[in-house]
Amino acid sequence: MTTASVPLSEIDSSAVVSNVLIAATIAHDVAAEAGAITTAEPLARTADIAAVTEHTRRPHRGNTTGPTDHHPDMIGEHHMSTLSVARDTTFEKMIALLKHQQDSKLDVIVPSTGLRSRNGSIEIRGMRPIAVDPVITDDGVTSHLDPDGRYRPTGAANATIADKLGIDRRYLRRLHTERPDLYDANINGLLHGQSLIHAGVTEQIYPADDRSFLLRLFGNPRGGEGVMRALLSDRYQIIDNLDVLTAVMTGIKRADVDVQIRSCDVTESSMRVKVFSPAVRALAPRFLDGYRDPFANSALENARLRVRRWRQVAAGEGQHYRAGAEPVVFAGFRFSNDETGHSRVSLQPQMFIKVCRNGYTLPMFEGIGKVHLGVKMGTGVRWSDQTRRKVLDLITAQAADSVRSWLSPQFLAEQLTEIERLAGAPVTQAATAVTVVGKKLGFTEDERSGVLEHFIAGGQPTAAGVAQAVTSYSQTVPDADRADALESLAFDAMRLAA
Question: What residue numbers bound the domain in which 210 lies?
Answer without folding.
Answer: 112-232
